[in-house]
């Protein structure tokens, strides 16, 4: 059986080839029905090894499951197409993707810049593992491009940004930071690359490569998978040398995604656009509802005109919404803890981006590791991943939880 896939990622113009639409590409880019059986969906290739025509004469470029797998490659092709990238790689988790990307770009003595509001796991990896390896790092407010420029050194190899950030939902102007890096590279003989973690926005809402980023990373566990049933990560770029380095590290270190996990993620990505439409509309309504509640001190959502990054978010987005994440600040930590334990429909749990709504207390859950650091989050903060349920039901649940705070 010969499938219309290969071990080389398709070019990012797959969206155009598939008819120009994002949803069309999400369904069709990266795989065509095979000639033998006509399977509409990519098969789960569970084989660990692949027959060769002759020694080192590979069929379709596949030899061993740790090196490459057709199901996994098909998913990489799809995500790369959605991001407008030529190359893509899939990993067993978002953190595995982060780890190998950092290892591909950094060596002892190198320096990186990261934002002051970032996922706790990313900071933990950099501050412990890579710092012990001799990598230096500087934390700045990336919403202020001038701070990025001031922090660039001759040994700076990368600038790592999230936008929107996790969990404060700050917005960084990707094009402005890219311009600062380009200028600094020329002046200081640095060779810094701009890495954008696009997990919160997804390629449906934001395409960083078009804004000047060099590399885009995803935790596919979140919106791309979308159903809280599979863990994974992805890295896409237009850099053939970086892609080769990641390919080598994937085969050498082995943090691969299983074919079944890749299949589940590929199934999820087909509905990314329609899911994100509901995530965004629900989140906008809920953000506006929460902004009107006296129990809430502050609502952090880029879709609100009051958000300091609203105009930048509007400028650099695809125009389809502001995402499904809403964070709020309550009057103190005790109130925040009571609130997250007072909802019924919205589940208290880590992670985000699934069809179901979740909420959490970052200071004691996802961001424990940044306590006492420059990335420490407010202890009165609650992060809400708004799902695709009926928004009236979500508001009713939030209403009950907020009313329970009156007795605090």
TrEMBL record:
Keyword Transmembrane listed: no
GO terms classed as biological process: cysteine biosynthetic process via cystathionine; methionine biosynthetic process; transsulfuration
Pfam families: Cys_Met_Meta_PP
PANTHER family: CYSTATHIONINE GAMMA-LYASE, TRANS-SULFURATION ENZYME FAMILY MEMBER
Similarity comment: family membership: Belongs to the trans-sulfuration enzymes family.
CDD domains to which the protein is assigned, alphabetical: CGS_like
Cofactors: pyridoxal 5'-phosphate
Keywords per UniProt: Amino-acid biosynthesis, Methionine biosynthesis, Pyridoxal phosphate, Transferase
EC main group: transferase
Protein name as it appears in the record: Cystathionine gamma-synthase
Organism: Corynebacterium anserum
Signal peptide positions on this chain: none
Annotated GO MF terms: cystathionine gamma-lyase activity; cystathionine gamma-synthase activity; pyridoxal phosphate binding
Entry-linked SUPFAM superfamilies: PLP-dependent transferases (SSF53383)
Any one Gene Ontology cellular component term annotated for this protein: cytoplasm
Modified residue annotations for N6-(pyridoxal phosphate)lysine: 222
EC number: 2.5.1.48
């Amino acid at each position: 059986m010969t499938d219309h896939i290969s071990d080389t990622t398709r070019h990012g113009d797959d969206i155009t080839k598939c008819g120009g639409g994002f949803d069309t590409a999400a369904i069709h880019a990266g795989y065509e029905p095979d000639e033998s059986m006509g399977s509409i969906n990519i098969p789960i290739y569970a084989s660990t090894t692949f027959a060769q025509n002759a020694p080192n004469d590979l069929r379709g470029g596949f030899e061993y499951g740790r090196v490459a797998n057709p199901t996994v490659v098909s998913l990489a092709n799809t995500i790369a197409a959605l991001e407008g990238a030529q190359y893509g790689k899939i990993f067993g988790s978002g953190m595995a993707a982060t780890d190998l990307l950092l290892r591909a770009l950094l060596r002892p003595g190198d320096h990186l810049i990261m934002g002051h509001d970032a996922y706790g796991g990313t900071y933990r990896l950099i501050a412990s593992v890579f710092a012990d390896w001799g990598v230096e790092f500087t934390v700045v407010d990336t919403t202020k491009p001038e701070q990025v420029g001031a922090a660039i050194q001759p040994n700076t190899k990368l600038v790592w940004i999230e936008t929107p950030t996790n969990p404060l939902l700050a917005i960084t102007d990707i094009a402005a930071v890219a311009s600062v890096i380009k200028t600094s590279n020329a002046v200081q003989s640095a060779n810094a690359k701009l890495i954008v973690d696009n997990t919160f926005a997804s390629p449906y809402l934001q395409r960083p490569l078009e804004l000047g980023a060099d590399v885009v990373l995803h935790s596919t566990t979140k919106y791309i998978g979308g159903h809280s049933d599979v863990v994974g990560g992805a890295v896409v770029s237009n850099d053939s040398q970086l892609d080769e380095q990641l390919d080598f590290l994937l085969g050498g270190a082995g943090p691969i995604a299983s074919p079944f996990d890749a299949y589940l993620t590929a199934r999820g990505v087909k509905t990314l656009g329609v899911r994100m439409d509901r995530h965004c509309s629900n989140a906008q309504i809920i953000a506006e509802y929460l902004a009107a509640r006296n129990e809430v001190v502050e609502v952090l959502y880029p879709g609100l005109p009051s958000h300091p990054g609203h105009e930048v978010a509007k400028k650099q987005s695809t125009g389809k919404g502001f995402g499904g994440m809403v964070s709020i600040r309550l009057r103190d930590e005790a109130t925040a803890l009571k609130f997250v334990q007072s909802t019924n429909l919205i589940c208290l749990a880590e992670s985000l981006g699934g069809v179901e709504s979740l909420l959490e207390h970052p200071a004691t859950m996802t961001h424990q590791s940044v306590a006492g650091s420059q990335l420490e989050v407010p202890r009165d903060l609650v992060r809400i991943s708004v799902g695709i349920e009926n928004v009236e039901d979500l508001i009713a649940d939030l209403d009950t939880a907020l009313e329970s705070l009156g007795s605090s």
